[in-house]
Design a protein that fits this description.
heterodimer, A: about 425 residues, Uridine Diphospho-n-acetylenolpyruvylglucosamine Reductase, domain 3, Vanillyl-alcohol Oxidase, Chain A, domain 3, 5-stranded antiparallel beta sheet, globular, B: about 240 residues, alpha/beta, 9 helices, 7 strands
Chain lengths: ~425, ~240
């Protein structure tokens, strides 16, 4: 297997790693690598922070192992190699009326990454996390490929789902696709005036898919204003999505200055009429709105950016409001901010979801943003909430322990399957997740 | 009417993407190559994504005896048969300089093997009076260069063969496309440093399909290689022999 010396980053481009990458194209090459000298598996590197980095080490890029190995057109059950991208499955199967059961905000995420992060989508409140739909996966263990299901080895299954890749490379997975009427979304957008209106709207929404965009720069009476999007799948004909655009260069700092972001957000909010509107959209436009701009992470300039994403329990909704006040007062937020109500569904010991409200906000990387994120993280911890490790690049180890009470159960499995720490990554080392305390 | 693509060298990166795309457009495939396990996985992928039928067959470009099984599968289809040939091998030129025995295999993989296969397949397409043949050559075949002139010579031979085949088959309604890719981001080029205009296999496969539907004769992909190679071909030999490109 050939190794390539590479310098690579996560989606946020703040952390950077230098190391060797292999990119096997044949299924048995992963086994050869693991037999010689095991290395963590990475996918499309859509984690924002350092979960997908192994500085001064090696990693296996799984993206070329992306084949569908079996599809049952009666039941929708699919068996697919771990490097397949969720958006690719959507494109291939939605025209025939089948959708991936859970889709994160980017279609570029791989199946392996989706399991390792136990990703959630706009239907989390109803259908739970991605890992909950996986019936079994094939894991590259020291003794060779092994099929793991909740029946054969529940503990290892739960250590792998949301397990940050620490149980070894996932080779393939089996899960049912969801039957849908077609590849069209019927989307209702509502303009929301402020925080006090937003929360009941989220609580009372019974749409299959729902997500809120929030203007994280609005203050005072407008604090928490935004747009609630609710959607259902449907059949019909709409114009196909336009081809993806590319960002050719890093954007200079002033492009995201507070005044410009405030102006952009205000006009984005007013775009939806006061009485709301319902429209029909191509399926990608709803699920992966940002994928239309290929390297949108370059918009934050060459120093990169951070995404802060937390979830707090339902009863801690006021703590989330206080966080939003801090964010709005800081003037550091970018236009990308999302508010959503989550259900309780989670598939593994280290999975992110909990029943409550999740808030995600992007910040251009600088020391003010780092200070603010640290504050928000403490507030999350106090509110008995949780930080999403797929997004994190800054958290403190002690906070993460408090947020993930099943860490010990996870660690027990990791120590068993990888005592040498071969699958360790920059995130694992930064947060000391391989240590018991 | 049903259509089938027989794909030689089907485990190669570009071939895999190509096979997936023709499957998604509802055509059947016959995947030929040496690694049957891999071919089976790819065939499952093609079937899941819409190919009415996906078969596999073990074919080694260096062994003419192995071709018959693939040809038999092609004959057993009804409707239009198309062929795409992606085989080729490129040992580093320094290794060839050390060990001239490697020349034979390189030429078998990149030229004589595919040429033998297509010659044996051609009568079937002529009989049915339809079909397209895609022969994947290389920009390396346009001029003998320091870095890979044995591989280049083999591909150059293949280009000439394809041009003759086009001349012959055009008379019976069969079209031949010569594809000259530049450097593509595949297992072959992984780890090589600083390759110019490195293209993604997706892009190359899309370009090939467009060339097929437009019945182009020769395709440079990505397109930038057409002006680049036009310039490189026009450099007088007296100057070219002193260059390192």
């Amino acid at each position: 297997m050939r190794w390539k010396d590479s310098t690579y980053t996560g989606w946020g481009r703040f952390h950077q790693a230098t190391g060797s990458l292999a990119r096997p194209e044949r299924a048995d090459h992963v086994q050869q690598i693991t037999a010689d000298d095991p290395a963590p598996a990475i996918g499309m590197r859509r984690s924002y922070g350092d979960a997908c980095l192994n500085h001064q080490g090696r990693a296996i890029d799984m993206t070329r192992l992306d084949r569908v190995l079996e599809f049952d057109a009666e039941t929708g059950m699919i068996h697919v190699e771990a490097g397949a991208q969720i958006g690719d499955l959507l494109h291939s199967f939605a025209p025939r009326g089948w959708l991936p059961p859970v889709m994160p905000g980017t279609g570029f995420a791989t199946i392996g990454g989706g399991i390792a992060m136990d990703v959630h989508g706009k239907n989390h409140h109803g259908t739970g996390s991605f890992g909950q739909h996986v019936t079994e996966f094939t894991l590259m263990t020291p003794k060779g490929p092994k099929v793991i299901s909740p029946d054969t080895d529940e503990a290892l299954f739960k250590a792998t789902v949301g397990g940050l890749g620490q149980t070894g490379p996932i080779l393939s997975a089996r899960f049912p696709l969801l039957k849908a009427k077609g590849d069209v979304m019927v989307v209702t957008e509502r303009r929301v005036d402020n925080w006090a209106d937003f929360i009941p709207l989220l609580d009372n929404s019974d749409a299959t898919y729902s997500v809120g965009w929030i203007d994280a720069t609005a203050r005072g009476r407008s604090l928490g204003r935004g747009i609630l999007e609710e959607a259902e799948t449907g059949g019909g004909l709409v114009k196909a999505a336009r081809r993806a655009k590319k960002i050719p260069f890093n954007t200079p700092g002033f492009a995201l200055s507070p005044a410009i972001v405030r102006m952009f957000n205000a006009s984005y909010w007013r775009r939806v009429p006061h009485s709301g509107r319902t429209s029909v959209k191509p399926i990608d436009d709803f699920f992966f709105p940002l994928d239309k701009i290929h390297d949108w992470n370059k918009l934050y300039g060459k120093r990169g950016f951070h995404q802060f994403q937390c979830v707090v329990p339902l009863e801690a909704v006021d703590a989330l409001r206080t966080m939003l006040v801090n964010i709005a007062n800081s003037g550091l937020a970018s236009p990308l901010a999302v508010l959503k109500r989550m259900g309780p569904g989670r598939g593994g010991y280290m999975s992110f979801p909990m029943e409550g409200y999740t808030l995600a906000v992007d910040f251009r990387a600088n020391r003010h943003a780092e200070k603010l994120v640290a504050e928000l993280e403490s507030m999350t911890c106090d509110a008995k909430g949780r930080i999403y490790l797929a997004k994190d690049g800054l958290a403190a180890s002690t906070h993460i322990r408090a947020m993930y009470p099943e860490h010990a159960s996870w660690l027990e499995q990791i120590k068993k399957i990888d005592p040498e720490g071969s699958y360790s990554t920059d995130l694992i080392r930064r947060l000391n997740l391989r240590d018991a305390t | 009417m049903s259509e089938t693509w027989i794909i030689l060298g089907a485990t190669s990166t570009i071939a895999r993407v190509f096979a997936r795309k023709v499957s998604e457009s509802g055509k059947s495939v016959i995947l030929a190559g040496r690694d049957l396990d891999e071919l089976e996985r790819s065939a499952a992928d093609c079937k899941s994504r819409g190919a009415p039928d996906a078969k596999t067959v073990a074919i080694d470009a260096r062994n003419i005896e192995s071709f018959e099984a693939g040809l038999a599968l092609a004959r057993a289809t009804s409707g239009t048969v198309n062929a795409a040939v992606f085989v080729g091998s490129m040992p580093p030129q320094e290794e060839i300089d050390e060990n001239p025995d490697l020349i034979e295999g390189t030429i078998a993989d990149s030229f004589t093997g595919p040429a033998q296969f297509l010659t044996m397949l051609a009568p079937l397409l002529e009989d049915r009076g339809s079909g397209t043949i895609v022969g994947v050559g290389s920009v390396a075949g346009d001029r003998g260069r320091l870095g890979n002139y044995v591989y280049g010579a083999a591909k150059s031979g293949f280009h000439t063969y394809l041009s003759g085949l086009r001349n012959r088959l055009g008379r019976s309604g069969v079209h031949v496309v010569t594809v000259k890719p530049g450097t593509v981001d595949t297992a072959m080029t992984w780890g090589m440093d600083a390759l110019p205009f490195l293209a993604q296999p997706e892009k190359v496969a899309d370009d090939i399909l467009r060339a097929v539907s437009k019945r182009r004769n020769t395709l440079y992909t990505p397109m930038i290689w057409w002006p680049v190679m036009t310039i490189i071909k026009s450099i007088p030999e007296a100057i070219f022999k002193k260059l390192k490109i």
